[in-house]
């Protein structure tokens, strides 16, 4: 909207003249000398430009009085949403309104009780689409403060990664907009998770990576990147934006620490100097402009040349003028400190520190940044993947909030799939961030921090019509949009969501992690995680146990303890002696009273919780790595016979490596997994190529290999990967596999493939494309005809397995799924699940009778398995039983990956306040039949 006030009497003709001149002069405001005195012909324009430099950025006051959104798409129908439970984002995220919302012209026109007979509503005369929300929760659209969507598009194809420039460390002139791919398959997927807006940042390999842009994720009728932008600064198409237009926020990416330093073979010292040098340049340019302008504004034109413009530095000059939201990737105290000093030296505010894994340890440092205290944008549980992230904590959001620092959760998409950004907020909530701040962390506060809080992030009259109708309370695990509106446009024709029961419609209850959070700060982010030792002769009694799931020879069987014959509920008890359940059921029958007299008894009230088998993680290098990006903490990668020459000492090409030989115990990720119910792990040697080697099954609790029960099974299965990139062709990989399966290879490798041939141990193949999986099925049959023995084949990853679910089931092939995201061409045909498709990939495979497990990729994800399992069950809308869900993360995983253990020796996990994976539940104990002990995890915590 033009704001002519500044220039008073300037005529339209003069404006036109001004612009036609600017169009021909890139980089300088021309100085047109008049014949007399020093005043140039275009003095008025120069004055306007100088005055503009003093104006403040931000929306004009009339933004909320607009009657049509600048993003309104012609033909969008007005919508009346009735009977909603609206989280408005107002009042610090605590306001909830039962009411109706009217959307028109891309805007929220009205919120409250809208009588259909009212003047406003009846003025639409039947043009209105009425949606009955039936009491469903509505929030503003989710706003992602940190995304690379479009710049690192899915699927990634060669040359299409436009995230990091390699041309220099200081590049404030670059713009993420220039690489924004409109065909990213993530747009509809992220919308299906409720995300409507994202700040697309350049990557972190440069100290100053360039300018970032806010986009809305929906398709536009123009189909261009520019048309996706939300309130773009006028600089996108003009070196000298019209000085009369209101200033809009600009956005900039900075990064400090490891990433920019490593990318430019520099040290932190070099990177910080690069910042200072750049800011000094920008400051000089700004000072030149300011002194030029102070002369202009004093009407003293003597000796003035051209306006001292510097196109390269103009964005950084705008940072110094406080017109740019600076978003800084910065992890450790050492880096935060450098950036805080920089902000004070050059006097510019920082909008947010991103990643900032140590911010919770140095809140005062964060607050001493120049100007307004920066927000801190975090992952919920992602951490420890490099030194900088080693002290990351799930308790950081709550701790920062306690210090009054604004907490945001972010995706860094595609690092985390932004479709599940709300899950980050849910986890932050689970670990103690108050619910109002948890929701605000991905909606209202992220909108505010990106400078868009005047039009998005709230359900409020005059705001953009970006809304999500949820199928549950938004902080309940598995919350899924029933509909998403962006600029008033409904994003789904039909949403596949099943009605969720009442208990999903309430704010979930969460456990108390207060002590754990305190300890985390006390130990500077590294609280001891080893469970305390318990004396062998102790008896443990669990009170108020709702159910017990125990393994038998066939699988998992659930026993409800809480219903007595007369129908009244009386929770049961479970007694553990020497790591075994000796009684489970009625307190009187189990002899509770007698036990209470004894002294060597630990009594643990589970408050309606349950006891289930410990989970088993697969897919990440847990056990072989402590810090992913630190080679000195890792086992390393193995050589691949298809591409590397293998030393003769190893047996040449026929060598096969055992993961068990490289195990490192006691990593923080392993112990965290243990504390959250993941008591064992199966890991294969880390391989970048075709051959993986021999997997191992081990305890996530053990502190070294000689610990009792540390290695549960030394050799589990043979692992290979058949994939599309950076290797000999897929056909070559299959040819190699065929020879191996035909028994044509000697040595150690021949020995283990012989076991695969005879069906003794499984062959585990990472494969994603349906075509590769189909080829593997044919190969399996080919060999079986020859050997007349069934080969055990398990496919992992398996993004496209659902396309041939029938054939996979028929062939008796098992599958371990990792959560699908269409990262590469070979896994682009995912089955996304609700709300986009009726079935999730998990359900599709289960419904065909495929034996299925759930895996992960990153070590830090291992601890989240219980949530993944619970989520799968929620998504299936009750069509998967509790035992089936747990089996997806335990029993099935073990069977599919070659674990053979006596069901009596499975660890059991006790949760308080709910079932494993419930937001109300906390893992409080692990029972080990092998060690004949019970770990009480809260002791010492
Ligand atoms: C916002 O809510 C948080 C958490 O509930 C609370 O600690 C904080 O004081 C509130 N802020 C305001 C301004 O009310
Ligand atoms: C330049 O971009 C602005 C939005 O920032 C838009 O309103 C205007 O139409 C664009 N001008 C041209 C000539 O494309
Ligand atoms: C979704 O799938 C279930 C079976 O898994 C079926 O009963 C139901 O009818 C399907 N719903 C729709 C809308 O297709």
From TrEMBL:
It comes from the Eukaryota. The keyword Aminoacyl-tRNA synthetase does not apply. Keywords: Hydrolase. GO terms for molecular function: allantoinase activity. One of its GO terms (biological process) is purine nucleobase catabolic process. One of its GO terms (cellular component) is cytoplasm. It holds the Pfam family Amidohydro_1. InterPro entries: Amidohydro-rel, DHOase/Allantoinase_Hydrolase, Metal-dep_hydrolase_composite, Metal_Hydrolase. Residues 398-488 form the Amidohydrolase-related domain. The keyword Hydrolase applies. This is Amidohydrolase. The lineage of its organism: Eukaryota, Fungi, Dikarya, Basidiomycota, Agaricomycotina.
């Amino acid at each position: 909207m033009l704001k002519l006030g500044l220039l008073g009497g300037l005529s339209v003709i003069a404006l036109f003249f001004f612009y036609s001149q600017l169009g021909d002069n890139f980089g300088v405001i021309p100085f047109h000398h008049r014949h007399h005195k020093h005043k140039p012909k275009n003095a008025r324009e120069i004055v306007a430009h100088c005055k503009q430099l003093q104006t403040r950025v931000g929306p004009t006051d009339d933004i909320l009085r607009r009657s049509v959104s600048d993003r309104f798409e012609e033909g969008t129908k007005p919508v009346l949403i009735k009977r909603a439970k609206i989280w408005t984002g107002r009042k610090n995220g605590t306001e909830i309104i039962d009411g109706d919302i009217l959307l028109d012209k891309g805007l929220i026109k009205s919120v409250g009780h809208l009588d259909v007979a009212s003047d406003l509503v009846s003025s639409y005369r039947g043009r209105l689409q009425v949606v009955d929300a039936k009491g469903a929760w509505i929030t503003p659209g989710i706003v992602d403060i940190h995304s690379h969507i479009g710049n690192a598009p899915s699927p990634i194809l060669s040359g299409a990664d436009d995230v990091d420039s390699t041309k220099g460390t200081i590049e404030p002139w670059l713009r993420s907009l220039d690489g924004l791919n409109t065909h990213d398959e993530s747009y509809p997927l992220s919308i299906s998770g409720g995300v409507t807006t994202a700040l697309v940042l350049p990557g972190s390999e440069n100290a100053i990576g360039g300018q970032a842009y806010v986009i809305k994720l929906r398709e536009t009728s123009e189909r261009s990147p520019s048309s996706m932008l939300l309130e773009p600064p006028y600089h996108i198409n003009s070196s000298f934006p019209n000085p009369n237009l209101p200033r809009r926020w600009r956005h900039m990416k900075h990064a400090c620490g490891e990433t920019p330093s490593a990318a430019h073979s520099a040290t932190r010292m070099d990177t910080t100097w690069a910042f200072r040098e750049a800011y000094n340049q920008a400051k000089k340019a700004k000072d030149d402009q300011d002194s030029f302008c102070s002369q202009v504004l004093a009407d003293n034109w003597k000796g003035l040349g051209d306006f001292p413009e510097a196109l390269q530095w103009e964005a950084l000059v705008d940072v110094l003028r406080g017109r740019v939201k600076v978003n800084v990737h910065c992890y450790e105290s050492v880096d935060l400190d450098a950036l805080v000093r920089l902000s004070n030296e050059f006097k510019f505010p920082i909008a947010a520190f991103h990643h900032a894994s140590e911010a919770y340890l140095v809140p005062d440092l964060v607050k001493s940044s120049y100007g307004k205290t920066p927000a801190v944008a975090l992952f919920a549980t992602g951490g420890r993947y490099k030194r900088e992230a080693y002290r990351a904590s799930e308790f950081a959001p709550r701790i920062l909030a306690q210090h009054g620092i604004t907490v945001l959760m972010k995706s860094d998409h595609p690092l985390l799939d932004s479709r599940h950004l709300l899950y980050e907020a849910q986890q932050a909530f689970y670990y103690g961030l108050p619910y109002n701040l948890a929701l605000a962390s991905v909606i209202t506060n992220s909108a505010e921090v990106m400078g868009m809080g005047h039009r998005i992030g709230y359900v409020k009259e005059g705001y953009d019509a970006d809304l999500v109708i949820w199928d549950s309370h938004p902080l309940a695990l598995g919350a899924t949009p029933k509909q998403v509106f962006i600029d008033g446009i409904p994003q789904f024709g039909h949403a596949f969501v099943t009605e969720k029961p009442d208990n999903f419609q309430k704010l979930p209850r969460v456990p108390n992690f207060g002590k754990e959070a305190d300890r985390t700060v006390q130990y500077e982010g590294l609280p001891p995680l080893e469970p305390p030792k318990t004396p062998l002769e102790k008896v443990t009694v669990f009170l108020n146990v709702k159910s017990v799931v125990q393994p038998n020879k066939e699988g998992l069987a659930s026993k409800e303890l809480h219903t007595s014959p007369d129908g009244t509920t009386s929770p049961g008890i479970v007694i553990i002696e020497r790591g075994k359940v000796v009684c489970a059921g009625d307190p009187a029958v189990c002899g509770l009273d007698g036990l209470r007299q004894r002294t060597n008894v630990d009594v643990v009230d589970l408050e309606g919780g349950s006891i289930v088998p410990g989970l088993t993680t697969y897919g990440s290098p847990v056990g072989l790595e402590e810090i992913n990006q630190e080679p000195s903490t890792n086992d390393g990668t193995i050589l691949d016979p298809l591409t590397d020459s293998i030393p003769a000492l190893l047996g040449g090409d026929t060598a096969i490596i055992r993961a068990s030989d490289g195990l490192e115990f006691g990593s923080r990720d392993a112990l965290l997994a243990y504390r959250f119910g993941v008591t064992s792990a199966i890991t294969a040697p880390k391989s970048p190529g075709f051959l993986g080697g021999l997997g191992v099954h081990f305890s996530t609790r053990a502190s070294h290999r000689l610990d009792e029960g540390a290695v549960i099974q030394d050799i589990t299965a043979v692992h290979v990967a058949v994939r599309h990139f950076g290797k000999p062709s897929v056909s070559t990989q299959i040819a190699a596999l065929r020879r191996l399966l035909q028994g044509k290879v000697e040595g150690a490798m021949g020995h283990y493939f012989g076991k695969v041939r005879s069906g003794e141990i499984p062959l585990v193949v990472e494969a994603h494309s349906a075509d590769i999986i189909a080829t593997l099925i044919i190969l399996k049959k080919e060999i079986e005809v020859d050997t007349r023995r069934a080969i055990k084949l398990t496919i992992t990853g398996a993004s496209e397995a659902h396309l041939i679910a029938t054939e996979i089931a028929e062939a008796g092939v098992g599958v371990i799924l990792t959560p699908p995201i269409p990262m590469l061409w070979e896994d682009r045909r995912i089955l996304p699940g609700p709300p986009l498709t009726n079935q999730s990939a998990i359900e599709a495979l289960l419904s065909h009778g495929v034996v299925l497990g759930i895996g992960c990729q990153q070590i830090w994800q291992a601890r989240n398995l219980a949530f993944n399992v619970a989520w799968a069950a929620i998504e299936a809308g009750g069509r998967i039983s509790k035992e089936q869900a747990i089996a997806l993360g335990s029993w099935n995983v073990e069977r599919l990956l070659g674990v053979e253990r006596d069901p009596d020796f499975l660890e059991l996990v006790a949760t308080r306040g709910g079932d494993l994976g419930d937001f109300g539940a906390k893992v409080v104990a692990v029972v080990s039949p092998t060690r004949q002990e019970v770990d009480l995890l809260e002791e010492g915590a």
